[in-house]
Amino acid sequence: MLLLDRVLHGIHFKVAWFADEPLKEKGIITYKESKIEKKDAHLFETLVNDLTKEPEEIKSGFAKNCKYEVNRAEREDVTYRILAGKEISDEDIDTFVDFFTRFWESKNIPFSDGEQIKRDFRLYRDIDALVISIGTVSGEDAIYHTYIHDEKRARLWHSASLYRLLSDEDDSSRKIIGMGNRYLHFRDMIYFKEKGLTEYDWGGAGKGEDVASITKFKEAFGGLPEQSYEFEEVRGIKAHLFKFLINVMDDVMF
Q: Residue 240 in contact with residue 27, Cβ under 8 Å?
């Protein structure tokens, strides 16, 4: 289990990832991708790859075209690097947010969550639970993946690619970057496997039309479907009082 614990106003605000059992400590606890079935919990669906297999066996589970592109990227000018835990600097985080902002702008979608991402990244970095992987094409950083993880599972958090390099005048790099994105996912799997993790979680596999193409992309890597539960639990008099006051304030304002 991965546990993020912050104390504000004397109250513990916890985020518990991948929990098998409820926490007994007091506070306001948000459960993410838990195995705990609870009434009114949000059902979360994802895909999970088994990292206990050997690298070639993992790759053999990929769809034919996906496997081809991973192998092809290895022959192209695609390289990768990993930043993990406390070796991630504030500058590294700023660089990712700048890249992620450009990614959304390239889709003509406004993006305003940069400061929140920076705060979240620093929290998970400081407990050695954050990983950033970077794919480079022709010397330019073109692909970013970010993850949170515990001792068993790595969970994809962000995935972004800029499908045209700044130096690319004829857009010839687009296909290579697409291959590089698949290659980077495979290399990430091997990195986590070598660190002793056993599960690669794709961070969601929704069935709605708005995410159908993303889910299809993820399915090509051969992960198995998995369901889990997400909900909030309030434990202790102090936490209940705080939550009550927040609800009262929301009612007054709205």
A: no
User: What's the CA gap between 97 and 104, in Å, rounded?
Assistant: 11
In the sheet with 42-50, reading across from the earlier edge strand, the strands are: 2-8, 11-17, 27-34, 224-235, 42-50, 199-201, 153-161, 140-149, 130-137, 78-84
In CATH, the architecture of 52-197 is 3-Layer(aba) Sandwich (3.40)
198, 52 in Cβ contact below 8 A? yes
What is the Rg, in whole angstroms, of the alpha carbon atoms belonging to the chain? Answer: 20
Alpha carbons 61 and 15: distance in angstroms, whole number: 33
Single pTM value for the model: 0.93
Cα–Cα distance, 187 to 139 (Å, whole number) = 18
HSE of 101, CA atoms in CB hemisphere, 13 A: 13
- Packing angle of the helix pair 174-194, 64-75 (nearest 10 deg): 90
Q: What's the pLDDT score for residue 165?
A: 62
pLDDT confidence of residue 168: 60
Tokens of 200: 């690669």
Nearest to 69 by CA among 164, 187, 183: 183
> Dihedrals φ, ψ of 33, to 5°?
50, 50
Average pLDDT by stretches of 10, the chain with 254 residues: 93 97 95 95 98 97 97 90 97 97 90 95 98 93 97 98 68 84 98 98 91 95 98 93 73 49
User: What is the reported pLDDT for 248?
Assistant: 60
